[in-house]
Structure formats: C-alpha cells, structure tokens
Design a protein that fits this description.
alpha/beta; globular; FAD/NAD(P)-binding domain; single chain; D-Amino Acid Oxidase, Chain A, domain 2; 8-stranded mixed sheet; binds flavin-adenine dinucleotide
C-alpha cells in the first residue's frame, strides 16, 4: 500500500475508516510496445537498477519485466545479511559502496527496510584461520572499512550462548564488522519498486521473457508472454535463471544454478543481537525482530531450478546449528524455503556488456548477492546508461573466465564458508 500509509496519522485514519483509502504501492501497467531500456528480472538487482537509471541517469521510459511477482525470487528468500568484509581490491570497494548505500537507503526511498547494523562476526577456530582473518581485517582497514579482531573472551562477551567449553572446533576468536548487519529482504524489493514506479518506471509482473531479439549483432527487444517489447538496451538481472535467459541470446555463461535453503525457528525472546558465522563449517545465524532465529548453511550439491530444499541439507544445517549453539537442539523449526543461486565459477559476480551490443549482464551473485543489491543496481544502471563499467565494478568482467583475471576470494567473501 502506498507510502504515506506509514505516517501515524494515516494509519489511524485508515484504522477508523476501514482502510479503504490505501493505494497500491506501484501501478500495474500494460507493457508498452517499446521502451528506451528493459530490465529482465524484478528481483532486488533489477528493481534497484531501474530506480537508479531513472534517478541518476534521467531514464524513465523503462520497464522491469518479472515473470512472477515482485519478491518471488531470491530477494524475498535470503537470510538478510549485509556486510563488506572482503579481501581483494576488486571486491572491497564495491561491497563498501553497497554498505554505504544501505546506510542511506531508507531516507533515499522513504521506506522502512529495517536496516539494522548489528554487526557481523566471522568466528575462527584455529591459528591458521586467525591469520587469514587478520589479513582480511587489515585489507578492509586499508580500504577504510571497519574491522575489529575479537579474541575468545571478546566473542564470549557478545555471544555467551556459543559452545566455548565442549566444542569439537573450539572458538579462538572472531573478525567483527560492526557496520554489517541485516536488512529486511522483501521490504527492499517493495521499497525499490515503489520508488522506481514513482519515477515513471513500468513494473510489469507476470511477464516472462521468452526470447531475445538480435539483429546484426545488436539487441532490438525481447519476446515475452505478453508480446514483443522493443528496446535498444536490455539488462539481464535474472539471478538463478541467468543461464537460461542468456541462452535465449545464444550466450553460454560460466554459471551453474544450485538451491540454497533458509530456515526460521519459532520465536524466542531476544537471544542473538548480532550476525554470527561458523568458521568450521558453513553456517550463519541471526535473530529477526519477530524473534525467530534466521539461519542457513550451504547449497545443495547438485544443479537445480527448484525453489525447494532437500532433507540431507536440512539435516546438515541443523547439525551445524547445534555444533555452534547446542541449546538450539530444543528449538522447533517453524519453516524453511529455498532459492535458486547463480553460482559463478570464481564466486564473484558479473556486471558487464556482452558480445551483443546493447545487451548487458548482471549475474553470478552466488549466495551473497543480497548485500550487493544497492551497489549492483547503481553500477548496472551506470553501465546501461553510459555503456562503460562503473569504476567500483570494473573487475566484474565477463571475459575474466577466458583471460584468467579471476576474483577468487578463497577464505573470504566469495568463499561460501565466509557467508
Ligand atoms: C536461502 C538464501 C539465503 C541467502 N542469504 C543471503 C544473505 O544472507 N546475504 C546476501 O547477501 N545474499 C544472500 N542470498 C543471495 C541473494 O538473495 C541473491 O544473490 C540475490 O537476491 C540475487 O539477486 P536478485 O534479488 O535480483 O534475485 P531474484 O530476486 O531471484 O530476482 C531475479 C528475478 O528474475 C526473474 N526472472 C527469471 N527469469 C525470468 C524471465 N525469463 N523473464 C522475466 N523474469 C525472469 C525471477 O522470477 C526473479 O524474480 C541468499 C539467497 C538464498 C536463496
């Protein structure tokens, strides 16, 4: 419902008048036959791209085409963690740019996205892992990013419920990024959608792209379930479906699609006031404002386009939860769900032109693209509007898999164990 409904006076008025005066947050336009640019995929990245195209580059004759409904993809399915604790020069400035955009997002789009900088602690469990975390923390600080090394007691003060006494993988300490935290995932989609709509962007739901029209090496539009839509510039932001959509233009991407599952427990009184990641496995946990513990682990081992998880992964995730916090064994799981991850071959994303003129690609976010949403939209909009990469995303080239300039952050952000 529309933005001013968040004012206390509007809420009171609506409560007394049967809520008849609330308007939809965005229009439901019929798609036009032609636009200046079309974004395929109405997830966080596609919506943010449309918003920044309109706001920063003055392009409002654009459409976001979404095959389902806004929020039906990974943007509404993730575990909400945001951070910029990376190691490589190609990654740190991009993710820090994103974190800075998160810090101003609610004022920017006038929407409560529940941005909560409650801190992210990556635990380490051996001397070697400590060295690795120290190195990463130093790289972050050299780039002006906040990083604090915690010893075992420092971690215990912040999270006394962790298993410090009988753990198979004893906790030696943790790397804390105080400015990291969580953001309410689907509010991000709704907020960007509303803000883009208000700048004239057409958000077209239930509109699947079924083909990409190319003439003489240049994109001229997309075929959709609602007819042909012409556009000289087409941006693909399809996350887990990136390979399938790019294949419509004859492109074969260095991406595999895998399932990742998230879990929410029954509600508890406040227990975990930060985000904690387990360094001896792959597990991350925080507590939502409603009280549920929100956690996740690793991707399923085989490729899939199903938005549902499988029992072995569920068992594995719960084992990791109990290895870290044994008390969780008494907790009841409320629900779990899954999303389709676009796993790139070096763990880093792609924001680049393609060999087809006018066709741009935003993909390869693996399991960590939610935190990138604002910067991804910002940089993809820059690329589409100016046909040149934004400086902080310049390393996310498609041809790096051929030239060997990989962004392989083993042991840091792109490594799934550092989620
Ligand atoms: C369980 C889980 C936990 C995660 N946890 C985190 C986390 O804590 N932190 C973090 O940073 N990241 C996390 N991620 C990753 C993050 O959610 C994704 O990397 C990110 O959301 C992907 O970008 P998006 O929002 O644009 O994707 P999506 O929301 O998936 O958007 C892509 C859209 O494209 C649409 N589409 C596909 N094909 C077509 C077509 N042919 N025509 C039209 N539309 C099409 C889809 O329907 C979809 O809506 C997690 C993901 C999952 C599933």
């Amino acid at each position: 419902m529309s933005g001013d409904c968040f004012s206390i006076f509007t809420l009171l008025r609506q409560a007394w008048t049967g809520q008849g005066g609330l308007k939809p947050m965005w229009r439901e336009p019929e798609p036009k036959s032609a636009y200046d640019a079309v974004i395929v995929g109405g997830g966080g990245h596609g919506l943010a791209t449309a918003y920044y195209l309109a706001k920063e580059h003055g392009m409002s004759n654009i459409a976001v085409l979404e095959k389902g409904w806004i929020g039906s993809g990974n943007v509404g399915r993730n575990t909400t963690i945001v951070r910029s604790n990376y190691l490589l020069p190609g990654n740190i400035p991009f993710y820090e740019h994103s974190l800075k955009l998160w810090e101003g997002l609610e004022q920017e789009i006038n929407y409560n996205a529940m941005v909560s900088q409650r801190g992210v602690i990556n635990l380490f469990h051996s001397d070697a892992q400590r060295d690795d975390h120290v190195r990463r923390g130093n790289a972050m600080r050299l780039h002006g990013v906040d990083a604090v090394l915690l010893d075992r007691e420092g971690v215990r003060q912040r999270a006394p419920f962790l298993d410090f006494d009988h753990a198979r993988f004893p906790i030696h300490g943790g790397l804390l990024q105080p400015r990291g935290g969580t953001v309410r995932h689907d509010a991000v989609a709704w907020g960007y959608a509303r803000a883009a709509d208000r700048r004239g962007v057409d958000i077209v739901q239930n509109c699947a792209v079924t083909g990409i029209r190319v003439e003489a090496g240049r994109v001229i539009g997309v075929e959709t379930s609602r007819g042909l839509i012409r556009a000289p510039r087409v941006g693909l932001a399809c996350a887990g479906n990136s390979s399938r959509v790019a294949a419509m233009a004859g492109l074969r991407l260095p991406i595999e699609s895998h399932v990742l599952t998230a879990f929410v427990s029954e509600a508890l009184k406040p227990l975990i006031n930060t985000v904690i990641t387990f360094g001896a496995g792959h597990f991350y946990i925080s507590q939502s404002d409603k009280g549920g513990l929100v956690f996740g682990a690793s991707i399923d081992g085989y490729n899939s386009y199903a938005q549902r998880g499988n029992l072995p992964t569920i068992e594995d995730s719960c084992e990791e939860a109990m290895a870290l916090i044994p008390a969780l064994g008494r907790l009841r799981l409320l629900r779990h769900w899954s999303g389709i991850m676009d796993m790139s071959m070096d763990g880093s994303p792609i924001i680049d032109r393609t060999p087809i003129a006018g066709l741009y690609l935003n993909a390869g976010w693996c399991i960590g693209g939610f935190k990138a949403t604002p910067a991804s939209g910002w940089c993809f909009a820059h690329l589409i509007a100016r046909d040149t990469p934004h400086p902080v995303a310049a390393a996310y080239r498609l041809d790096r898999f051929a030239t060997g300039h990989l962004l392989d952050e083993a042991g840091t952000g792109a490594d799934v164990t550092m989620h």
